[in-house]
Write a structure and sequence with these properties.
The complex is a heterodimer of chains A (about 375) and B (about 450). Chain A has about 375 residues and is α/β, with parallel strands linked by helices. Chain B is α/β, with parallel strands linked by helices. Chain B starts with a helix and ends in a 21-residue tail after the last helix. The chains are: A alpha/beta (about 375), B alpha/beta (about 450).
Chain lengths: ~375, ~450
C-alpha cells in the first residue's frame, strides 16, 4: 500500500469513527420518533381516588348495559370481558358468588359487582375487583385485589387489600388488617389494632377502637412562660416572623411561643409546650405529651410525638414518625397531610386528611410501644 | 485555507526573529512556567466541576430521592398571589390567565396579578377584560413607566401584594391544574424562602434547536436541580414556575432591580439570610423555548451576564458566611462559577495548544482537558446528565440526538465567553442595564403539540 493511500485510509477511518454517533442522531432528527413534549399531568400520583375513578369509568365503558338490565329486573348476570376475565353481577336473587371450582379453592377469579349490599365469606381470595352499590362486608382473613363500595365497607380481622380500596361512606378495618396501596373513604376510616397501611385518605382517620378524642382548642397547653427569641439558647437569628436556631434546642415544659421556629440541630419540646406558628427541625425531634403546634411540623429525620399532641398540619418527616396515644393531626373541617417514611401510631390517634407512610405504617397492638427506627 | 494563511503569516515574519521568539519562549522561561501552571489550575477547576456533575448524576441514579413536600394534597391552603409579568404578551397572556382561573386551589385564597409592564400592544386590554369578568380573583397591576426588566416590574407590583406567598409565572407558561398547590406546599416548611418547579419545553418538535434545548432543560432540572435538592445543596430559584415568601425576600432586600438575573440574585440573598430554596421536580410546567439560534444566543448571553453579576456580588459574602453549611457553600460557589467556566475553558484550550507548539507536552495534559471538557461544558448540564435525564424521563429515543448537542454547547461556550469577557470591559461595567426579552413564537401558545 502506498503511503498516500495509507494516510487517506487512516484519515477516512478517523472521520468515519468520529461521525459514527451522528448516524443514529441524524436518523432520530429525521424520523422524530421521540419528539413529543414530556407528559406532565400525573393524576395517578396526586389523586388518592384515581384508581377508584378509573374503575368506575371501566364499568361504565364495558358493563353499563348489563348493570342497567340487572338493575331493572333485579336478576343476576354473568359473562366474560373481551380479555376473558369473568364477571358476576349479583342482583336481588342472591346468586352463588363462586363457581364450583372457585368454591373448592376458596379463590374468586371473577369481577364481583353487587347492586345492593354484599357480604363475603371468610378466608377467601378475590383476585379481581369487588364492587357493591350498598354496604360491603368481608369475613376475616380475606385477601382482596381492590374494593369499591357506595356504602360502608367493613373488613374482617386480618384481611388484606392489595391495590386500592374506596368507599363513598365509612371504612372499618378489623384488627390486624393489611391495607396496601391507596385506601380512601368519603366519611371516615377506623383501623383496628395491629393494622398496617400505606396511604389513607378520609376526613377523619381514627386509629384504634377508642372514641375519637373530643375537639379541644389546646388551651391547656402553653400555660407557662411566654418565650421570645432572646430566651432561646444558642445562636439565634430572628426575622420575617421566623426564629432560626443553630444547634440543638430544648424548650421547657408549658412554654408558649408565638413565632415560627427553625432548628438546625435536634429539637425537644417539653410537656404542654404551645407553638402558635410552624416548626421545622433538620434533625430528630421529640415532642412531649400534650404539645400543641398550631401550624405545620416539618422534620428532616425522625419524629416522636408524646401522648395527646395536637398538630395543625401538615406534618412532614423524611424519617420515621411515632404518634403517641390520642395524638391529633389536623382537625374536623381542617384536613391536612401526614407524610413520613414509616408511621407508627398508638391507639387513640386521629388524623384528618391524608396519611402517607412510604415504607409502611402500623397501628400498635394493645400493650405495644412504638420506636422510631433510626436506620 | 487555514494552513495557507498560517504559512503566509509565518513567512511574513523574518526567519531570524522567529528563531529568537522560540528561543526566548522556550523551556524554563518564566512565561512558559506561568502558562503551564495556569493550565494546571484550569484543569483542576474543570476536574472539580467534573466530580460535581458525576456526583449529581450518580445521586440521581442510585441515591435517596427527596420529595419532602410532594405528598401534601390536603392542607389549610394559605393565601397566595400569582404574579404574571407581561411585556407585549398579547399572543399568550389570555392562555395563562385562563389556565390560572382553572387551577385546583381555593378560589377565595387565590389572587392572580397580571403585571402589564409598559406594553404597547393589546396586553392591557386582554388583562382588563379578564379582570372585569373575574374581579374576585384577577387583580391587575399596570406599569406605564420606570426601569426596564422583570425584576423592576416585580419589585413595583409586589408593593401591592397583600399575601405572604407569591408565585411567579412568565406569560408564555401554561400551569396545570394542580401546580399552584404543589408550588405552595413547600412553604408549609418555615425554613423555605423560595420554591422552584420544573420547566418542560412545549414546542419540542419545532426544530433541532428546540429538541436540543429540551434535552438541556431535562438535564438541568431532572438531574442537576433534583440532585442538589437530594443532597441539601443549593437548588436555584429560576424566576418562573416558582415563588418566594414575600416576608423573607423583603428581609433580605426585595427584588434586585439592578440584576439581569433577579432569580439567581434572590436565591443567593435568601441563602445568605438563612432561607432555603426548595425544588419540586414533579411540579412541571410547559414553556416555549427559543426556536431560532439568534434568540437562543441572546437568551444565554443575558443569563450569563446576570449570573456573573450575582457571582461578583455574593462570592465573598458566601465565602465568609457562617450561616451556610460547608457543602452548601461549596456548591453555592461552584454554581456561581458555572458561566465563568466557558471562557476559562477556552483559555485552557488556548494554553494547551500553545504549550504543545512550544514543545511543553506534559504527559496527558491535553487528554485530561479533552476528557474533562467533554464532561464539563454546557450551561445547564453535561452530556451524561442529559443522557441520565432522558433515561429518568423514559425518553429513550431522543437520547440519540446527544451528539448534536456538541454544536449547541459550542454555541453556548462562545456566546457565554463573549458575554462574560464583554462584562469585564470598562465601558460595559458602568453602562446601563440592557434587558433583552426572549423572543417567543406565539403559534403554540404554551400548549404542547400532540
Amino acid at each position: 500500500m502506498s503511503p498516500v493511500l495509507a494516510i487517506a485510509f487512516f484519515f477516512a477511518l478517523t472521520v468515519g469513527w468520529a461521525l459514527l454517533p451522528f448516524l443514529p442522531a441524524w436518523a432520530e432528527a429525521r424520523r422524530r420518533r421521540d419528539a413529543a413534549p414530556l407528559q406532565v399531568v400525573r393524576r395517578a400520583e396526586v389523586d388518592v381516588r384515581h384508581f377508584a375513578r378509573r374503575f368506575r369509568d371501566f364499568l361504565a365503558q364495558h358493563l353499563t348495559a348489563d348493570l342497567d338490565a340487572a338493575q331493572a329486573d333485579g336478576r343476576s348476570r354473568e359473562g366474560r370481558l373481551e380479555d376473558g376475565t369473568g364477571w358476576l353481577i349479583a342482583g336481588a336473587d342472591t346468586p352463588a358468588l363462586f363457581t364450583a371450582a372457585e368454591a373448592g379453592e376458596r379463590v374468586s377469579q371473577r369481577l364481583l359487582l353487587a347492586l345492593g349490599d354484599l357480604t363475603l365469606p371468610a378466608e377467601h381470595s378475590f383476585l379481581q375487583e369487588v364492587f357493591a352499590a350498598g354496604a360491603l362486608a368481608g369475613g376475616p382473613r380475606n385477601i382482596y385485589r381492590a374494593m369499591l363500595a357506595d356504602g360502608p365497607i367493613i373488613l374482617g380481622e386480618e384481611s388484606t387489600t392489595l391495590r386500592w380500596l374506596h368507599t363513598e361512606d365509612a371504612l372499618v378495618a378489623g384488627n390486624g388488617c393489611a391495607l396496601y396501596g391507596r385506601v380512601s373513604a368519603v366519611v371516615s376510616i377506623r383501623l383496628g389494632e395491629g393494622c398496617r397501611f400505606e396511604r389513607l385518605h378520609a376526613p377523619a382517620i381514627a386509629f384504634g377502637a377508642a372514641d375519637e378524642p373530643a375537639e379541644t382548642n389546646g388551651d391547656e397547653a402553653g400555660g407557662g412562660r411566654e418565650l421570645t427569641p432572646r430566651d432561646l439558647p444558642g445562636q439565634v437569628d430572628f426575622g420575617a416572623g421566623r426564629c432560626l436556631v443553630e444547634g440543638d434546642l430544648e424548650i421547657e415544659a408549658e412554654a408558649r411561643i408565638d413565632f415560627d421556629l427553625v432548628v438546625v440541630g435536634r429539637l425537644r419540646l417539653g410537656r404542654g409546650v404551645r407553638v402558635d406558628g410552624s416548626v421545622k427541625c433538620r434533625r430528630d425531634a421529640e415532642l412531649g405529651p400534650g404539645v400543641v403546634i398550631a401550624g405545620s411540623l416539618v422534620c428532616g429525620r425522625h419524629l416522636r410525638l408524646g401522648a395527646g399532641c395536637r398538630i395543625g398540619g401538615p406534618l412532614l418527616a423524611e424519617g420515621d414518625v411515632v404518634l403517641g396515644a390520642g395524638c391529633r393531626v389536623g382537625g374536623a373541617g381542617r384536613p391536612t397531610t401526614l407524610s413520613a417514611r414509616r408511621v407508627t401510631v398508638a391507639a387513640g390517634g386521629t388524623v384528618h386528611g391524608t396519611v402517607w407512610a412510604h415504607e409502611g405504617g402500623r397501628l400498635l397492638a394493645a400493650g405495644e410501644t412504638g420506636e422510631a427506627r433510626h436506620a | 485555507m487555514f494552513p495557507d494563511l498560517a504559512i503566509a503569516i509565518l513567512d511574513a515574519i523574518p526567519r531570524e526573529r522567529l528563531v529568537t521568539l522560540f528561543a526566548l519562549i522556550g523551556r524554563g522561561h518564566w512565561l512558559v512556567t506561568a502558562m503551564t501552571w495556569a493550565l494546571y489550575v484550569i484543569i483542576f477547576f474543570v476536574c472539580v466541576y467534573l466530580v460535581r456533575h458525576y456526583s449529581f448524576t450518580l445521586n440521581r441514579l442510585y441515591g435517596r430521592q427527596r420529595h419532602p413536600y410532594l405528598d401534601v394534597d390536603e392542607a389549610e391552603w394559605p393565601e397566595v398571589t400569582v404574579m404574571v409579568p407581561a411585556h407585549n404578551e398579547e399572543a399568550v397572556i389570555s392562555q395563562i390567565l385562563q389556565a390560572l382561573l382553572e387551577v385546583d386551589y381555593p378560589r377565595e385564597r387565590l389572587r392572580v396579578m397580571p403585571v402589564n409592564d409598559r406594553s404597547d400592544d393589546d396586553t392591557a386590554a386582554i388583562i382588563d377584560a379578564f379582570a372585569a369578568r373575574h374581579p374576585d380573583v384577577v387583580m391587575p397591576y399596570e406599569r406605564r413607566e420606570g426601569k426596564a426588566g422583570k425584576a423592576a416590574a416585580l419589585a413595583e407590583a409586589m408593593a401591592h401584594v397583600d399575601t405572604d406567598l407569591i408565585l411567579v409565572f412568565d406569560a408564555d407558561y401554561m400551569p396545570g391544574r394542580g401546580l399552584i398547590k404543589q408550588l405552595t406546599a413547600p412553604f408549609f416548611d418555615p425554613e423555605v424562602g423560595a420554591v422552584m418547579g420544573r420547566v418542560v419545553p412545549a414546542n419540542v418538535e419545532e426544530n433541532l434547536l428546540t429538541r436540543l434545548l429540551d434535552l438541556e432543560r431535562a438535564g438541568g432540572y431532572q438531574v442537576d436541580q433534583q440532585a442538589r435538592m437530594n443532597l441539601h445543596l443549593v437548588p436555584q430559584y429560576g424566576g418562573t414556575v416558582g415563588g418566594v415568601r414575600k416576608s423573607a425576600l423583603m428581609e433580605v432586600g426585595g427584588w434586585n432591580t439592578d440584576s439581569l438575573a433577579e432569580d439567581t440574585d434572590a436565591t443567593y440573598r435568601l441563602l445568605l439570610g438563612g432561607w432555603k430554596t426548595a425544588y419540586q421536580n414533579r411540579s412541571e410546567c410547559y414553556e416555549l423555548v427559543p426556536e431560532r439560534w439568534p434568540a437562543r444566543v441572546r437568551q444565554i448571553k443575558r443569563w450569563a451576564k446576570g449570573h456573573n453579576q450575582t457571582m461578583v456580588r455574593y462570592f465573598w459574602q458566601l465565602v465568609r458566611s457562617r450561616r451556610v453549611g460547608r457543602l452548601e457553600k461549596l456548591d453555592g460557589l461552584l454554581l456561581l462559577g458555572v458561566y465563568l467556566m466557558s471562557p476559562v475553558m477556552l483559555v485552557g484550550w488556548a494554553l494547551a495548544i500553545l504549550l504543545w507548539f512550544l514543545g511543553i507536552n506534559k504527559p496527558g495534559l491535553i487528554i485530561i482537558l479533552a476528557v474533562t471538557s467533554y464532561s464539563s461544558i454546557g450551561n445547564f448540564a453535561t452530556f451524561f446528565e442529559l443522557a441520565t435525564a432522558a433515561r429518568l424521563d423514559g425518553s429513550r429515543e431522543r437520547i440519540r440526538l446527544l451528539p448534536f448537542l456538541l454544536f449547541g454547547f459550542l454555541v453556548s461556550l462562545f456566546s457565554v465567553s463573549r458575554a462574560t469577557v464583554g462584562q469585564t470591559m470598562p465601558w460595559q461595567r458602568n453602562g446601563r442595564l440592557h434587558w433583552s426579552k426572549t423572543d417567543h413564537n406565539s403559534r403554540h401558545n404554551g400548549r404542547p403539540h400532540g
